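Changelog-adjacent note: as of this version, every example in the card shows the full chain rather than a window. The one below runs 184 residues end to end.
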Amino acid sequence: MAVRLPVPDALEVTISPMRRRHLRAVQRIEQQVYPRPWSMGLFMSELGMGASRVYLVARVDGAVVGYGGLMLVTGDGHVTTLAVEPAWHRHQLGTRILLALVREAIRRGAEHLTLEVRASNEAAQSLYRAFGFVPAGVRKGYYAETKEDAIVMWANDAAQPAYRDRLSRLEAGLRGSTIHEERD
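Full-length structure tokens:
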């Protein structure tokens, strides 16, 4: 059955905290986009560490179409995962999820942001550069299943007004609308 995607200007995306009820859909996406998907147990463990973790889902018409995660450690926000169902690529879902993660990191006191990205994933690197992430190093063979290198990227000074202006510009460039649901 083919997925019918809405016209971008009419797209309404809901960003909300990831819950246990979302995990089947998250796992389905995880298996489509990663050679070595995270287990249900790993996601459950991460969700149990709410003081230092943020996990969000993006939904369209109630269906989970993307998700992302963040770990907070002493002034740093580390993006742990970001994925969008392949049928929904190029609909700015990754941008919406990352905006929400980064803003929550800043709200919780993060001054710097970091992540690892596959050296071959140019689309993701482009997204991260739009958020001010710059390459800072390489982790050789980081992705064990493929022995692929990871590029370590950092966005420094995330708590500064100039970075918040960057986020506002990114948000202004989104088509359609984004609804943010708060934690219970």
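Structural remarks: The chain has a mean pLDDT of 93.
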